[in-house]
Structures are given as C-alpha cells and as structure tokens.
Amino acid sequence: MMRFLKGLLITFGILFIALVVGGIVGLRFLSEQWEEEPLPDRFVLSLSLKPGLDETSEPFPFAAYIGGPSPSLLDVINLLRTAGEDERVQGLFLDLSAASVGPAEAQELRAALSRFRASGRFVHAYADSLEGNGGIALYHLATGAETISLQPSGLLDIRGIELTTPYLGEALESLKINADFRARHEYKGAMTPLTDDAMPAPVRENYRRLVDSLYAGIAADIATARRLSPSSVNALIDTAPLTAAEAKSNGLIDETRYRDEAADAARAKVQGAELVGAARYLRDDLDFINGEDTARIAVIAVEGPIVRGRAEPFSRSRQAAAENIADAIEQAREDKRVKAIILRVNSPGGSYTASDTILHALSKARADGLPVVVSMSDVAASGGYFVALDADHVVAHPTTITGSIGVVSGKVDFSGFLAEHGIRADSVSAGRNAGMFSPARPFSYNEGRRLDEVLDAIYADFTGKVAAARRLGPAEIDAAARGRVWSGEDAKRIGLVDVLGGYAEAEGLSRDAAGIAPGKPTELVAYPTDRDSLKDFLGALEAGELSEAAMRLEALLTILRYSDVLVTMLGGTGGDRINATAPPLTVR
After folding, report:
1. Where are the beta strands (DSSP E) in 355-431?
2. Domains of the chain
3. What are the b/e assignments for 156-190, b being 16+ CB within 10 Å?
4. Is 415 helix (H, G, I), strand (E, B) or coil?
5. Which among 347, 403, 471 has a CA at the least distance from the CA of 213?
6. Per the confidence metrics, is the pTM higher than 0.90?
7. What is the CA radius of gyration of the chain?
8. Whose CA is closest to 502, among 81, 50, 79, 77?
9. 291-328, pLDDT tens digit by residue?
10. pLDDT-based confidence at 16, cuts 50/70/90?
11. pLDDT, tens digit, for every residue of 209-222?
C-alpha cells in the first residue's frame, strides 16, 4: 500500500510539473506571436498605484514567461524617469485610490513626480477618497502634482500622525504571566508593550520628538505646494477629516471629479492624446533610454525583519534573509557592468548576527573597490541601521525612522499562569543553561546575569562600530544611542546620516564615488536580477535537486509508515513532545 501511495504521489508530482512547464512555454509561444499596436506619437501616461509597494521586485519563478509580480517602488521610480525622457509622453494621470504608502515612500515618489514635472510634463493626481490612517502620507504624495482631483463623495482624511501602542503589562500581571525583557537602554521601547502598563517616560519623550519632527516636515511641504500659510495648514489638519467640497474651498484640492472626468481632463491637456497604461507602456521598446553605454548601479533591498539564513522559496512575506542578501551583493560584485551598489533599507532590524552577515558582505564589496551607498526608506532602525555602517554615504528621507541603536532580548514566563491552573511543566536537561529560554519558568539568577552580559557585549559592539563609522565621540554616541529613534531630519543633525533624500541623491553619490563621467547615463537595476526560470528548472533537473525532493518525499512516506509505532513509543513516555533544542537568542 505504501509503495502504491509513493508511486502515485511521485507520478502526480511529475505530471503537475510537466503541465506547469508546458503551459508556461505555450503561453510564451503565443505571446511571441501576438504583436501589440505601436504607441501613438503623443500620449498621457496612466499609473494606478497599488497598496503595499515592495522596495524592489524579487525574482519570481518563471517571471519571464508570465509577466512577473506587481511593480515595486523602484519600478515606479524607473518608470517615471524613463517617461520623463520619452518625447511621446506629455504628462501623467496618477490614480491614488487604492494606494497605500509610508511617509518616506511618499517623499520618494513625490520627488520622482517633481523630476518628471521638471522635464516639462504635467501630473494630474486623482483619488476617489484619501482616507484612513495613511491619508496624510497619500495627500503629501498628491501635492507633488500640479492638479489634485477628489471624487465629490470622497474624504480628505489628513488627521495628522499618531503612534499608538497597547500596553499589556497590567493584563499579563493579572494573569500571572511575567514578560522578562532586558533593554539597552531606557529609550529601547520595542518590548515595553509587554513589560509596562503605560508608555515609559523616556520612550514617550523620544516618540514625542519623533512625531513632532515627522509632522512638521509634512505640514511644511503641504503649505509650500498648496501656497498656504503653515498656520492654516495646521488648522485644516486639526479639522480633518474634510469633505471633498471643504477640501476644495480651502485650497487643498483643485477639483471634485469622478475618475472618468479626471482622466478626460488630463487627456484634454494634450489635444487628441490617448491615455496609455503603465503596463502597456513598459511593453514597448524602450531601448532608446538605456543602451550599451549605460553604467549599471545595483539596488539591493533589505526589506522586512532581518533574519538568519535564507528566505523560504515561493514565500510572499517580506523578510531580509541574510544569506539571500549576501548572495545578491556577491552577484553585483561579480557583474562587471555594476559600478556601485545602493543598499535600500526598509527594516526595523532583527537578528544581530544576520545584520552582521550583511555588513560583512558589503565590506567585502567595498574592499574590492565597489562603492556602497545606503538609501533609507520608511524605517532603518536597530539592525536596519547597523547594516549601513560600512557605506561610503548614508542617505535618508526627512521622514525616515532611523537609529534605535540598542538591544533588547528576553522571554515571556508562563510559570505563574500554569501553576494557577494546576498545570506543571516538567523536563530533564543536560547543560546548566539548556532551559534558559523555556517559557515554563523564570530566568535563574545565573541565567539572567549571563543574558545581561551578552546584551552588554552586543550594545558595546554596536555603539563602538557606530562611533567609529560616524566619527562620534563618547558623549555624542551616548546622546545618539541608548535605543533612541530619530526622524531622518534629526538623524542628519546628530551625525547618523550624511544626506537627506532618496534614490536621486543616492544615485548622484554613487556616480561620484564610482567616478562615472558626467555625461554617461546610469540605470538602477534590482539585484538579484531575474533569471530565466525555465533554464533554472532544467538546471535543477541536471543538478539532481528534484531527485533530492523525491528523497524527501520518500522520507515523509517512511514517517507515515512508522507513525503508529512513533505514537505508541511517545505514549509510553507519558507525553507527546520532546524538545531537544534551545530557542535562539533573538535581539532587536
């Protein structure tokens, strides 16, 4: 029976792979037989931003055959630059109805719109409604357009900026659950929601400064773009959410229109022009923009929590897996077309070891003569800041949340809760600290002291490397660190950041560091680059990777075969779980 099941599963697996590959090759063949009509001589580009822009598009299996994933932030930046150099493109109709961006992403896109407009083209921004907690960031982006339209029934929800955190300390205490986390130092607030029943005073002070800095920059940009006084903008924000009519009467938007009306108005700016979608535009032959004489700058994203090892294949969750990023850096190092690296960081940190793995790979690239410029997006905190320590230059947006130079680790101890309910956890172990991170008991005195020693060592290493990289004295690094978070504006003031800006500034610094001639064009290319997935698949066959998968399937079937025996053995021990590994030490 088991042999039959094994053969059946393997047969179905082979048939499934054959169908997928055959279907993809067939679609590719059909697509090559179909030719789209050429684009008109003059047209208005139409772009609808989708929620949750990734920093870069990750290589996706068979992307070359099925069109790839949704456009990334870098894709949009490159699109606007290309369109700004294309004589056929007269303007842009930007639909923000479904968009969702962070404050720094909004600044990045807003700057790209400004460059596009500086090329002599217009931008019309539209949304059916700008509402929700991200409304002010979206409106900040919209103010980069010369005309803003809102659906008559829509809202302009620019209520300001708030950092809200539920504090569970009192609730956990009532349940006899002890969250034992140790931080370096008082401003490191990552785990205070579990340990405290209210925002600690140092954390509140730090967050107050951060929110005020973010708010001031955004409000000032809005006032300048809409030709309003700062006091009137502040008053309107305090009145929000605003109806579309109120937003228009107060000068925050230009027109109340439905989407078709807004699109018609954009098209009417250029007599007889068509509206051409971004996807169709990118399918056109754009080789006139970047030819063989182009210098390539690799863009490598550190996006999401920083973790050790490699990312799970086919996973859609964004994690900055250290080995994947190190591989991308290595690929850029080996590519003779690459003249510099822009490390694009949008991460709250994570594993200190993983962050150090990324930093080491960047150090090797710089040692080989490849300049590295770090460009920070919405967040570059803790490990997300640590990876920037061996860069030629560090660039951040004014609204980037950065710093958090500190460390925290610990565990949640459920022993009191378990005892309250008559539950006793029992174990045997070898090694004095084997159960150090067990949630079934508190830290012993020696375990707690050892954890404190480890955290002290990590904090000293972190701050020492920041001080050396940023040329800060003992008093300066102490004032910048201790777990504080900063806006990009404040981070530049205290020496943690070199330049305020985004991709344009990072590209300029990369050109200078690499010695690229002023007249030579450059292109920003995400690494790792897309590979031909069909060739990769055939390569996997040759390398025996599929046979390895079949071996794993056979191992699974073996476990199934002996599952009854395993259950009987575990039942005889009086339990159903044996944990023979110590939980990892995770620091943030």
Report:
1. 372-381, 393-396, 401-403, 407-413
2. 43-159+240-282 (3.90.226.10), 295-424+434-526 (3.90.226.10)
3. bbbbebeeeeebbbeebeeeebbbbbbbbbbbbbb
4. helix
5. 403
6. no
7. 27
8. 77
9. 568 899 999 999 999 999 988 765 556 789 999 999 99
10. low
11. 999 999 999 999 99
